[in-house]
Design brief:
By secondary structure, the protein is mainly alpha-helical. The protein has 2 domains: 66 residues; 69 residues. Helix content is 72%, strand content 0%. Helix 3 packs antiparallel against helix 5.
């Protein structure tokens, strides 16, 4: 309780000497002031969450969900996949065999031979990761088949 409040209470008590015999616990006001400060802080915090933070985060979430659905479930990105380059490994193996038959390094026949093979292997790995991520999204319930 502030000094001014205590003084006001004491002044009133001194004017009414007959009531001085009744005890007043002035610490009750101190307790409620403390609780009121906590109440104000908590109401303010919840107000921010419901009036500002939620709208901003919900919009971000909705946009991210939309982007994820678009890419992982609606195939909005036309990525190259293993089926598109299914014959590349066979051709690379044939190039290697012919270079070996001629006794020359494969890089003399096709300078990007190793890099091409590495990219095909990496594509298979990335496709697996993509499928794992898609399953994660399904498990989170961010996509349902009837939408």
């Amino acid at each position: 309780m502030g000094i001014k409040t205590k003084q006001t209470v004491l002044d009133k008590l001194s004017k009414n000497k007959t009531k001085l015999s009744k005890k007043i616990d002035l610490s009750l006001v101190d307790d409620i002031n403390y609780e009121f400060q906590y109440l104000e802080e908590e109401v303010s915090r919840m107000s921010y969450t419901t009036e500002e933070w939620f709208d901003q985060k919900f919009e971000e979430f909705y946009q991210l969900r939309s982007d994820l659905r678009s890419i992982y479930f609606q195939n909005s990105e036309a990525y190259l996949d293993s089926a598109d380059v299914a014959g590349d490994k066979d051709v690379l193996i044939q190039i290697k065999e012919k270079a070996d038959e001629l006794g020359i390094p494969v890089e003399n026949v096709y300078p990007n031979w190793q890099e091409h093979l590495d990219q095909l292997d990496y594509l298979e790995y990335i496709e697996g990761r993509f499928d794992e991520q898609k399953k994660e999204l399904e498990n989170l319930g961010l996509w349902t088949q009837n939408k």
